[in-house]
Write a structure and sequence with these properties.
Blueprint: H1 10-13, H2 20-28, H3 33-43, H4 47-89, H5 99-120, H6 126-146, H7 154-177, H8 183-209, H9 214-262, H10 269-284
Helix pairs in contact: 3-10, 4-9, 5-6, 5-8, 6-7, 6-8, 7-8, 9-10
Length: 289
């Protein structure tokens, strides 16, 4: 017995028909990696924040690395300049004292010499004492300056040393001949004060003779400052790079976890996830302008 076939109504016959296989292919087509990231950014509330943080940290890391590179070049140039200056003024590398520390010590010793000169000339009026004090500090400073390891100043240094010795002898004689305690006591006192005066000036000469010059001091300070800035910026660059790696890792971890839920079936799933990760890394790294 044959089945009875009912005719299709006219309103259904005029409607377009879709094959079930075509509908399945349209609904089950896996998204491309770029489409998957767009869906992730629209559907996942934490994705835009993580992506923005990763891009921000990447920019900071790039800027810090560039600043550290510039600081390293500046530090290298200043260190080379300091070495050149030091080899000119101190070819043997024997002057290790700080200029300002040595200058302070030499100044204190010259003040001790001036105090000894004032005591030796105590019997004179104030004008005479001031003259001897000024002569002592002037001659002492010239002696210290002339002994600064300059061969051209050897004659001047010898002449100024003789002048200081004559000044000291005159002050000792003045102290001995002035009124006061008995002559033997005045002689002992004058000799002691004269030795103090001479030793103070000699000490100032020794201190100044072992310290660096002002030019080397300025070059060294510039080199140390540049080196400190280089170290600080290098540490900042490492810190920013670590933060950028952590932020990028958080963004990639979210991409991996979310993309595993929508990856296509079959052997191409892992390759698809790898492409998603590659696109995520590119999106988290701002293009250089």
């Amino acid at each position: 017995m044959s089945a009875k076939v009912h005719p299709m109504p006219d309103e259904l016959a005029s409607m377009p028909m879709a094959l079930p296989a075509a509908i399945d292919r349209r609904l089950t087509r896996p998204p491309t990696p770029a489409e998957a990231l767009h869906v992730l950014l629209r559907s996942q509330p934490h994705a835009p924040r993580l992506l923005s943080e990763a891009r921000h940290r990447a920019v900071l890391a790039g800027n810090s690395a560039a600043a550290a590179d510039r600081a390293a070049r500046v530090a290298r140039d200043t260190e080379i300049g300091y070495e050149q200056v030091r080899r000119v003024h101190d070819p043997r590398g024997e002057l290790r004292g700080s200029f300002w520390g040595s200058a302070t010590a030499a100044g204190v010793l010259l003040l001790v010499a001036v105090a000894a000169a004032l005591v030796l000339s105590w019997g004179l009026p104030w004008a005479g004492r001031l003259v001897f004090a000024a002569a002592t500090v002037t001659l002492g400073a010239v002696v210290v300056w002339a002994h600064r390891r300059q061969p051209a100043r050897r004659g001047l240094a010898a002449g100024m040393t003789i002048a200081v010795g004559m000044l000291c002898a005159g002050l000792v004689a003045l102290r001995v001949l002035s009124g006061g305690p008995p002559a033997p006591l005045r002689l002992i006192e004058a000799v002691v004060l004269g030795v103090v005066l001479v030793m103070a000036i000699a000490g100032a000469v020794l201190v100044a003779d072992r310290c660096e010059c002002l030019t080397c001091c300025r070059a060294r300070v510039r080199s140390e400052r540049a080196g400190g800035a280089r170290d600080q910026l290098t540490a900042l660059a490492f810190s920013d790079q670590a933060d950028a790696v952590a932020a990028g890792g958080a963004w990639e971890s979210l991409v991996v976890e979310e993309c595993r839920l929508m990856r296509p079936a079959g052997p191409d799933g892992e390759q698809w996830i790898a492409e998603c990760i590659q696109i995520a890394r590119q999106s988290a790294t701002p293009a250089e302008s």
